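Structural prep section.
Before we set up the soaks we want a predicted structure of the protein with MV4 in place, mainly to decide which crystallisation condition to try first. Input record follows.
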Amino acid sequence: MFQKILIANRGEIALRVICAAKDLGIKTVAVYSEADRHSLHVRFADEAVCIGPAKSARSYLDIPSVISAAEITNAEAIHPGYGFLSENDRFAEVCGMSGIKFIGPTPEVTRMMGLKQKARQVMKEAGVPVLPGSPEALTSAEEALDYAAKIGYPVILKAAAGGGGRGMRVVHSAEELPNLLAQAQNEAGAAFTVPDIYLEKYIGAPRHIEFQVLADEHGNVEVLGERECSIQRRHQKLIEEAPSPVMSPQLREETIAALKKALKAIGYRNAGTVEFLMDEQGKLYFIEVNARIQVEHPVTEMITGIDLVKSQIRIAAGERLEDILEGPIRLNGHAIECRINAEHPETFAPCPGKITGLNLPGGIGVRVDTAVYTDGVIPPYYDSLVAKLIVHGRDRTEAIARMKRALDMFVVEGIYTSIPLQRKIMDDEDFASGNFDTTFIARKLASIQKH
Ligand code: MV4
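Run finished without errors. Recording the tokens verbatim:
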């Protein structure tokens, strides 16, 4: 096992990795920007290195600064958290060249998963259902029109190197396709190193369901069930839960079997998430792989009892999944996470600032992952996540009741947060009955905000 690891991140996820390392008896090195000098990840790590100014391009995203910090502190491995350098294949490569273990997939796999059509192709070959689409990048409007005619409208244009919804265009008819293709190509050319665009069948009002995987360096893969992530606004998830209220045991088992085969074929290593869309018929279709630990990983931890971050570190140290997991994966009860953001409840504008008063909820079945404290400051330079409030119950009804009381007891003074919005969603009848999809927030926002 490693003696010392460096955490190339900040905020709640940096603290989360410090917790996992402490549980394993591993020393930790924090890195921080000048804006994060007084952050809890700096305070609770064994050592801390300032790596640059507030702007992340010159600190948390600066590969030479992060690598230097690892070298001067003799850290043997780097955990990238989520965001920042977590899916940067070049960073993983530089770690390797510097003799530092990157706690994540190999650079080759990260690169391949970043190319959406390539990922789609390997999934399809292993029997994971994918949407009908163009197998290669589109080379002309004529070619795109041919595919779209074959598949049937509506279709969606996506950037091969995109993700998270950037640069997508929905096409409803042949007339509008050439223009939308040109727009998508321009946008992708400006935003990504690979300008390619492909198309696939468009699903309106899908549910967003994702599967958590763990894979070791000996070719073993396990899938830890799914998460329901449909409650989102503009590609920012607000609420995640596990299991999905609409997943049947049979569909889960079929999907898990296909995913194990696919991930073994790819040579996937470490933790990862495989995203799917579910259509109105309840069919799942692969969309992309996230080769990192995700914000919403705690809901899976709560229903499996498995520490995913600790598992990541043990996998990177060469341990076998059978030794890490100690028996079959069991899905137990129901977990829900609310992302508490520093944002205006009506405009959603980020609201950084000083937290003048704070009460974190607790009690049975409640977990709070956060790096905030009274008189602490949320800086304007990074994302606006203040805390993740996670609850667990024997069933979904108990989990919702616990989320309501925990939100009621969650006090954050000095800044606006999404707590009031989350609390209202918990009272929504369609949320309670599990009757929702990715259009839920857009459809309900006006009426939710009125009450
Ligand atoms: C889609 C889709 C409908 N049909 N693909 C958005 C993020 C990116 N990961 C994929 N996304 C979508 N891909 C097809 N073929 C609808 C979306 C989508 C979406 C997906 C998941 C969660 C929220 C979403 C919000 C809008 C659109």
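Observations: Residues 131, 156, 163-165, 200-203, 206, 208, 232, 235, 277, 287-288, 438 surround MV4 (CB under 6 Å).
Flagged for discussion at group meeting.
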